[in-house]
Write a structure and sequence with these properties.
Elements (H helix, E strand, L loop, with lengths): L7 H12 L5 E4 L4 H9 L5 E3 L1 H7 L10 H12 L6 E4 L7 H13 L4 E5 L18 H14 L6 E6 L7 H13 L4 E4 L5 H10 L5 E3 L11 H6 L4 E4 L2 H20 L12 H7 L2 H7 L13
Parallel strand pairs: 1-8, 2-3, 3-4, 4-5, 5-6, 7-8
Helix pairs in contact: 4-5, 5-6, 6-7, 7-8
């Protein structure tokens, strides 16, 4: 009721334990707090909070327009609704190394279990689009070093994302991954890998956990969790999947209303009132204070 039963510190340990478990960790992307509750209810390992989703939810493209305050606030709202560890996309760290340091502490304050910081030039763009530019290795390393030095909870996960494969060779991506680990990264996010062999190459380059981004309509084939696990991947994210699914359903329902003058034909595909009440745990509020909830949860729709 109201918030997670596990503290941020416990959830950070959970994330570390999951990455050390030898079993790939699946983190679907939440687009709001209620979807994070649904992710937990379905038995996933954690919740991912995509920078693209946060930007798109504000009606903005994913090109670095969101602020630290916006990201930390929304990510905190999502993280507090689940007992699962929540990992957030911190883009390029929202500025220079000193800004990166502040970003880490704000995300810690918001209850996140970890974040990733990328090596793109700001303003950035979606990792699966062409025309990206990355900073030099020294600049990238300074971002990660500032992040690692700033955290107060040693279990807050600092993941380094590298987009260099979009502009250079696989060998360059391996070299960049090694440099970022040397700078203090706890894990590596190699963006836009083209096949399982490329994930395996990153796995052989570093000893820390690695992440696979299984976003739709991107550069990577949508591999299964078992395929990725066989290539040595420790965590897989599905960053925009739920937002795309929800917006697709919303658009179809609006089309139904326009075509028929009523939503009746779409009702069978909607989440029921009873299921919604289950996810927001109305019954717990009833036990807490019957003056807050004093009616029966209806069945059906």
């Amino acid at each position: 009721m109201l918030f997670s039963t596990r503290t941020p510190e416990q959830k950070r340990r959970d994330l570390r334990d999951g990455l050390d478990s030898g079993r790939i960790q699946q983190f679907p992307g939440a687009f709001n707090p209620l979807s994070a509750r649904l992710i937990e209810d379905k038995g996933f390992d954690g919740v991912y909070i995509s920078g693209a989703v946060l930007a798109n939810d504000l009606g903005l493209p994913d090109i670095g327009l969101t602020t630290l305050t916006e990201v930390a606030t929304r990510a905190g709202q999502i993280a507090r609704m689940t007992d699962l560890p929540a990992m957030v996309d911190a883009d390029t760290g929202f500025g220079e190394p000193m800004n990166v340091a502040r970003s880490i502490q704000e995300l810690e304050n918001a209850g996140l279990a970890g974040c990733h910081i990328e090596d793109q030039v700001n303003p950035k763009r979606c990792g699966h689009l062409d025309g990206k530019n990355v900073v030099d290795v020294d600049t990238a390393a300074k971002r990660i070093r500032a992040a690692a030095d700033a955290r107060r909870d040693p279990n807050f996960l600092i993941m380094a994302r590298t987009d260099i494969r979009g502009t250079d060779t696989l060998a360059a991506a391996q070299d960049r991954a090694r440099a970022l680990v040397d700078a203090g990264a706890d894990a590596i996010f190699p963006e836009a890998m083209r096949n399982l062999a490329e994930f395996d190459a990153i796995r052989r380059a570093v000893e820390v956990p690695i992440l696979a981004n299984m976003t739709e309509f991107g550069k990577s084939e949508l591999f299964t969790a078992s395929q990725l696990e066989s290539a040595g991947v420790n965590m897989v994210i599905y960053p925009v999947t739920l937002l795309r699914s929800a917006m697709g359903a919303a658009e179809r329902t609006l089309d139904t209303i326009r075509a028929h003058g009523s939503q009746q034909a779409a009702v069978d595909s909607m989440q029921t009132r009873a299921r919604l009440y289950e996810l927001v745990d109305y019954e717990a509020y009833n036990r807490f204070d019957t003056s807050v909830f004093n009616f029966q949860v209806p069945g059906g729709h």
